[in-house]
Amino acid sequence: MQEIDWKNLPFGYADTDYNVRCYYRNGSWGKIEVSSSNNINIHMAATCLHYGQEGFEGLKAYTGKDGKVRIFRCEENALRMQKTAERVLMAAPPVELFREMVHKVVQLNARFIPPYGHGATLYIRPLLIGTSPEVGVKPSEEYLLIMFVVPVGPYFKEGFKPVDMMICRDFDRAAPQGTGTVKVGGNYAASLQSLAIAKKAGFSSTIYLDAKEKKYIDECGPANFFGIKNKTYITPQSESILPSITNKSLQQLAEHLGYKVEKRPVPFEELAEFEEVAECGTAAVITPIRKIVDPIANKTFTYGDPETPGPVCTELYNVYTAIQFGETEDIFGWTEVVDV
Ligand code: PLP
Ligand code: COI
Questions:
Q1: Which of 282, 285, 286, 287 has most ligand 2 atoms within 8 Å of CB, for mutation?
Q2: What residue ranges do the domains of the chain occupy?
Q3: Quick one: which of 103, 58, 100, 96 has its CA closest to 80?
Q4: CA dist 171 to 106, 152, 197, 239, 244, Å?
Q5: Under CATH, what is the fold of the domain 163-324?
Q6: Shared fold status for 6-152 and 163-324
Q7: Tell me, what DSSP letter sits at residue 239?
């Protein structure tokens, strides 16, 4: 059995032992099945392949200081998957089924859960796809919910270190009243081109402006955006961004720590006023941003010390991750223990 280098894990795919699957057929969900195959056998005309009838989620399991394994706000991910399912007319998995599958896939792959102390986690990827063959544009009758796991390190190889971001004005990832508020693969396909341009120019990722007016900050490719000024945590309100569970939690935490919280449209010009800015998400956790470049508007915004995260981001990061890794009391009731 190959040793895993917990300290240097990338955020990337790797095989584990098992995945769990549940099929929706004839109007109801079946029994949870365990598989050791990394392949799925689906019809070539499946709706997920042709008409993008699919959605996914992302959450993590953490080994705590006390050795217990915890998952974070699993119910929120289940509810968001239901919203995704509703938006593209898929069968919505019940919260309890979702939770049971998460526990099971973590238990079955216990040897892949990174031990405490390396900042590594077990990323859980639930995926829901329409599997019935169709050629006309219509929803599938059958669905597959599958969950696999992969041990991961930080999403951005820098970890908790400031990154550079590029504003994307040439391509939108999502439109108001489109699918930006749910987690369908098409949003990520739409982001690939701008991400490639940003990466080629040396940036870690992109920041999107609102698609309608290009006046307001929307979000980052794989994460929400927040800025800090005057002891206030400010994050965009928008019709085309994914409601991040990390962001929602950080708003609660910021309030608890004595900051004001504002969720409202954030005009592009306000980038010049923030003391700190960051992106946040399950994969990104809190990734501070040190520089934002807008090549088309010919503007550059810089924040704080280029090498060191700002004080508010650091405080939020420390308390947030301490809850996830069981180092401090979970006063919000965000975590649940998995029996492994
Ligand atoms: N925004 C987008 C587009 C994402 O893909 C993600 C990741 O899930 C997020 C935001 C952050 O959401 P969460 O904190 O629920 O992981
Ligand atoms: C997550 O943070 O879970 C994501 O889904 C981001 C990304 C890898 C798509």
A1: 282
A2: 6-152, 163-324
A3: 58
A4: 37, 29, 11, 17, 22
A5: D-amino Acid Aminotransferase; Chain A, domain 2 (3.20.10)
A6: no
A7: T
Distance 134 CA to ligand 1 centre (A): 30
Quickly count: other Cβ atoms within 10 Å of residue 1's Cβ.
4
- Hey, is 83 helix, strand or coil? helix
Nearest CA to ligand 2 atom 6: 222
- Separation of CA 135 and ligand 2 centre (Å): 30
**Which residues, in sequence order, are bridge partners of residue 205?**
165
Buried b (16+ CB within 10 A) or exposed e, 180-205: bbbbbbbbeebbeebbebbeeeebbb
139: which 2 tokens? 């929803």
Q: What global pTM score does this model have?
A: 0.97
Question: What is the assigned CATH class of domain 6-152?
Answer: alpha beta
Q: Nearest residue CA, atom 3 of ligand 1?
A: 222
What digits encode the pLDDT tens for the residues 117-159? Answer: 998 999 999 999 999 999 999 999 999 999 999 999 988 777 7
Note whether 324 and 332 are within 8 A (CB). Answer: no
Q: What is the pLDDT of residues 73-111, one digit of tens each?
A: 999 999 999 999 999 999 999 999 999 999 999 999 999
